[in-house]
Amino acid sequence: MWDREPSLLGIGDNTVDVYVDKGWMFPGGNSVNVAAMAAKLGVSAGYVGCLSRDQYGSLIYDALKEEGVDLSHCRRAEGANACALIGHDQGDRRFLGSRPGVREDFTLMDDDYLYMRSFDIVHTSIFSGLDDRIETLAENATMLSYDFSNRWTDTHRDHLADKIDIAFLSLSELALDECEGVLKSWAQAGCRTVVGTRGSEGSLALHEGRLCSFGVKPARVVDTLGAGDGFVAGFLVEWSKSSDLTRALEAGAVNAAAACAVMGGFGHGRPFSVLPDDLPPRRAAART
């Protein structure tokens, strides 16, 4: 697609994943993870969002800086950063509670749109709260990528599909024929490239009528939290280079396996001694 290394900008959501039973916290959030993981793959990456000035926001800021992610348009604000409490039950993660923090106050400015035009890929997610700005994002992004996780609905498809270049959907609870049907419905709604992740069953993608699938790569599993975001980063980087659907799915699988080998989304953990005291308990489905 390009005869050079692509560039990727993550916009919107961020959080600190607090592992309550392990005493460690890690930078996270889909848009943060994808930007950091793209930088690990050697491409120029940036992040635009709102981080607090507390220890949680500083953890994310410092980690992104260390990975070489450009933060020139990232805001810092007073208040609490977004956090998620995560527990583990026989190796499976459980989301115990969360707070949105200062990221709720994040709004895009004119300078942000000018900035995003300098990137080949702009990526955001359903957790970023930017659905009302998708049309403007699409107008300013060379390629707009959106991760719907397992929160996608027919309403999302009907209102957003034709504005997004690449949609990522978590389909791990569906049978293969159901997955293919979902991808086709999103393509019919106007999305050129639709990618479905199926956890241990691999992935599949549909681009302009061509359907491809790929399995998983062997992994030394330490933590699966960042696997889905690792897949997204790997897919986007390879797709932007080669426009080869099978190669992009394989690159996603390779990067997902690599993400499983580290704690947190992309490492950079710090120990903590006191839990945030303002996170309401909340049950939520784990992302894959």
Radius of gyration: 18 Å
Can you identify the CATH superfamily?
A: Ribokinase
Helix fraction?
Answer: 25-40%
Shape designation? globular
Contiguous runs where pLDDT drops below 50 for at least 5 residues: 282-288
Number of helices: 8
Quick one: how many beta strands?
Answer: 16
Q: Going across the major beta sheet, what is the strand order?
A: 4-1-9-10-11-12-13-14
- Helix-strand pattern: EEEHEEHEEEHEHEHEHEEEHHEE
CATH architecture assignment:
3-Layer(aba) Sandwich
What is the domain total for the residues? 1
CATH-defined topology: UDP-N-acetylmuramoyl-L-alanine:D-glutamate ligase
User: Averaged pLDDT, please?
Assistant: 93
- What is the CATH class designation? Alpha Beta
Reported for the largest beta sheet, the result is: 8 strands, mixed
Structural class: alpha/beta
**Straight-line N-to-C gap:** 28 Å
Approximately what portion of the residues adopt beta-strand conformation?
25-35%
Protein name: Sugar kinase
Domain Carbohydrate kinase PfkB: 17-263
GO molecular function, one term: kinase activity
Pfam family, one: PfkB
Detailed description of the structure:
The longest helix has 16 residues, at 227-242. This protein is 31% helix and 26% strand. The protein has 288 residues and is of the alpha/beta class. The protein has one domain (7-273): UDP-N-acetylmuramoyl-L-alanine:D-glutamate ligase (3-Layer(aba) Sandwich). It has an eight-stranded mixed sheet with strand order 4-1-9-10-11-12-13-14, sandwiched between helices. Strands 15-3-2-7-8-16 form a six-stranded mixed sheet. The protein has a two-stranded parallel ribbon with strand order 5-6. Strand 5 (50-52), helix 2 (55-66) and strand 6 form a beta-alpha-beta unit. Helix 7 (227-242) runs antiparallel to helix 8. Mean pLDDT is 93; it is low at 282-288. The chain has helices at residues 30-40, 55-66, 110-116, 134-140, 154-160, 176-188, 227-242, 245-260; strands spanning 7-11, 15-19, 24-28, 44-48, 50-52, 75-77, 83-89, 92-99, 121-125, 144-147, 166-170, 193-197, 203-207, 210-214, 270-271, 281-284. Residues 17-263 form the Carbohydrate kinase PfkB domain. This is Sugar kinase. GO terms for molecular function: kinase activity. Pfam families: PfkB. Belongs to the carbohydrate kinase PfkB family.
